């Protein structure tokens, strides 16, 4: 299975049409079709549902597409870091939770790129589950996670600052008139909660019993959750400083007593970093 063929395959998946994919790849349509058929024969699976006007993946095809994206991302990152100039250069991948404490890492990246402008940082907004997986697979160099987080297998740097938990609600909601939300108030709401924390961790973080929690939906990125709040699905339990509520139909109300969370920059213990990634790690540590 050649990397070149995987790139052909992903282009067809992206375009959902072999003709458009072949134009983007600057090769003939019969060549693309033949390469994909050879790939199916090599793997012994069917990648596409035949007979539809647009390309539809089979279950096996979808799995291969997901794996191919990771394989090619890791390959491109590795080649980028190998073929670097004498100056420190290369790509660094950081999977990050949504947090206002990311500003510390952003400032360190700025300071470092003033000296080494050929460092390219790729910041991917995601959740802790994805971060752990991609760190273990070598796709991400670092992760930025919210506490609490089990750091047994990681080297880490705690980032300055903290965020406060609260509720994102509609301006028209009766909650919007409150100065703060109590923990008992949460038991009467249809909550939209983070997939990372889940119902299990609501007891750990807030002392709430599972049977008293009414979960309407979950999210991994708060922007999507804010749209659900706007649509009236429920009220989002979240951290402050992520969604700008100015000139919107939403407002953030903090919890009382105040419940806070910090952010941590992590890397796998024993992982060998590229020079670019090591430079960022060292810069963040020196800036704190």
UniProtKB/TrEMBL annotation:
The keyword Transmembrane helix does not apply. Gene3D superfamilies: 3.40.190.290, Winged helix-like DNA-binding domain superfamily/Winged helix DNA-binding domain. Signal peptide: none annotated. SUPFAM superfamilies: Periplasmic binding protein-like II (SSF53850), Winged helix' DNA-binding domain (SSF46785). The keyword 4Fe-4S does not apply. Residues 1-58 form the HTH lysR-type domain. Keywords: DNA-binding, Transcription, Transcription regulation. Belongs to the LysR transcriptional regulatory family. This is LysR family transcriptional regulator. It comes from Companilactobacillus mishanensis.
